[in-house]
Amino acid sequence: MLMVKDHIQLIRDYFKLAKISRPLFALTLLTACLYKAFAIILPIVAALIIKALTDQNEVQTYFLISIYGLIYFLNRLTYFLNYRAYTWNVAHTYHSIQSRIFEKLIRADHNFTKKISKGRLMNTVNTDVIAIGEMNDEISEYITTIFQVIAIVAISASYNLPITLIMVASALIYMKVHDSCDKKYNIFWWKTQIEDDKYSNLVSQTLSGIQEVRTFNMLPKLQEKITRIQGRYNKAYKKQRYYANIRGVDIKFIYYFFQVVLYVLLLTLMSHGHLALDILILLLAYHTQIIGGIETLSDATAEIRLTSASVARVKSILEYKPAQELKFGDLALDDLDGTITFDKVSLKLEGQTILKDISFKIRRHECVAIVGNPGAGKTMLFNLLLRLNKPTRGKIYLDHTEISEFSRAVYTSNVAVANQSPFIFNMSIRKNLNFVDPDIHHQIEACKIAGIHDFIEALPQGYNTILRENAVNISGGQRQMISIARTILTDAEVLLLDDITTSLDPDTAKLVPRLIKKLEGERTIVMITKKPDLMKLADRIIVLDDGKISDSGTHEGLMKRSSIYRHLQTNVPSAHNEKRGENV
Predict the structure, then answer these.
(1) pLDDT at position 573
(2) Domains identified in the chain and CATH numbers
(3) Long-range contacts formed by 506-513: CB under 8 A, 24+ apart
(4) Residues whose CB falls within 8 Å of the CB of residue 72, separated by 6 or more in sequence, listed in order
(5) What's the rounded Cα separation, in Å, for the pair 16 and 311?
């Protein structure tokens, strides 16, 4: 009972997290109960066969042997069905948890990886989720084995109470030692997992900065760090194996010791005429089943306790709360013009004021450039439009509707962004574009607008060319233009261009002005840019300085009255902002 009480909360946490299929779990329980019930009946039939043999009743002996065969067949059949139900349950749970984790990652804020390292995250989405999927079988075994052991003890007691008490005593000692070792095993297993997370995180960071590692000869220091991680891992692993050996090997001596004691007692009773041979066979078989049941119970308990660590790790991801909870509404209106209004918007993050009283309006299909020295607040203004942050004060409107009122699907389909460092998946160009629109004709048209179609067609496999991770087998400019084509393909009313010329070579950069001219009059375009020529293309330019709007207007007007804009046109940062640097 203490064991059941100790693990009841773990099982509750599992059911809450896994959201398992109730019909599938009920099938797992039912089939487990059946195959264990047949296992309990088998020794009784075996004892009856022995009795029929001793009575020299040939007909009854053969009849009972056939019954034994039938029950054994049913035992194996229900065990097979139990295994299938378990497999279906694992697949269902794995898919459910992975989908929820993936959705959580997509919606997490920038603080997420500060709380949960990439190494731990990768281990969690692989090993932890698999472990949780398999836990439903352990819970099924745990529940049904308790009833199995109780049933065996009750049947055994009806034949010989003193012998049954000895059997129960051996089982309790066995269980106590097993559980004690298991708790210590789990402590050191958890320590190995922590070190494994650290190692995975270090490998991930090393791969991300491999060029710097080679350039600055960081390898010796990294090897020292790995050696320390490995040392702590090995120390914990040795302790883990020590208790695993006791649990898996040494503890068997308890079973064998009591088995010998029972043999001696039962043979003594039989020799004095107090016990029949068939009952001796029955009690010995049940002692084996009791110890086997206790071992199954202990193993299930061990796995439940071990998997509780995986449950906690997955829960920490799924229950992560961002500093700013950005909620979407349920407004499904999708016939939008693309008018954007900022009404006295301010943003404060971690005690620092980033934007102060920003007010402006961008008309339908207008092209507006957001410019300013590093740290002026340009990127944060885009983050607000992308709903990565929410204003501390003020409101942002899309077509006279506050942006928080739109559903996620409607808003994200109408406000799209092309970043200065776009991400491309390790798959073909066509499949990368399929995420947005699977129509190949639309894809080709978008690539023509972006000026990348001819380059793609010149590749050996054309649109079926496989891009390596983040498209490292093509130039940064080509990767950027594919990303822009993907943004165009969204057919969003508002396009946000975040300094997209940063990674472009001079020849590719020439395509951007043409792109903007093609899109003028079709989409509302808001761009952050450092390029003087692109600023000139805008219908209107908004100049930010220290989180405030310093000025706005056309290129000609700003050249006359804005010193900040004149500095930007000559690529010379103003002294005030040069000292502050790129803080935002």
Answers:
(1) 45
(2) 2-318 (1.20.1560.10), 340-580 (3.40.50.300)
(3) 507/477, 508/451, 508/475, 508/477, 508/478, 508/480, 508/481, 509/477, 511/450, 511/451, 511/481, 513/537
(4) 38, 42
(5) 10
The Cα–Cα gap between 343 and 361 comes to 8
Hey, CA dihedral for 380, 381, 386, 390, is it positive or negative? positive
Bridge partners for 355 per DSSP = 347
| Farthest-apart Cα atoms in the chain, separation | 119
Q: How confident is the model at residue 577 (pLDDT cuts 50, 70, 90)?
A: very low
The per-residue pLDDT for 4 is: 54
Q: How far apart are CA 397 and CA 389, in angstroms?
A: 15
276, pLDDT greater than 70: yes
Whether the model pTM is above 0.90? no
| DSSP, res 357 | E
Instruction: Give how far the C-alpha of residue 415 lies from the chain's centroid of Cα atoms, to the nearest Å.
Output: 27
Distance separating alpha carbons of residues 304 and 135, to the nearest angstrom: 7
CB atoms within 10 A of CB 557: 14
User: String of b and e for 475-495 (b: at least 16 CB within 10 Å)?
Assistant: ebbbbbbbbbbbbbbbebbbb
Beta bridge partners of 396: 342
185 — pLDDT class (breaks 50, 70, 90) = confident
Place of tokens 């898919």: 95
Which 3 state secondary structure label does DSSP give 208? Answer: helix
Tokens of 75: 């035992």
DSSP 358: E
Q: Are strands 548-553 and 494-498 parallel, antiparallel or unpaired?
A: unpaired
In this structure, are strands 524-528 and 494-498 parallel, antiparallel, or unpaired? parallel
Rounded distance between C-alpha atoms, residue 505 and residue 277, angstroms: 92
SS3 state at 584: coil
- SS3 assignment, position 348: strand
Tokens of 109: 């804020």
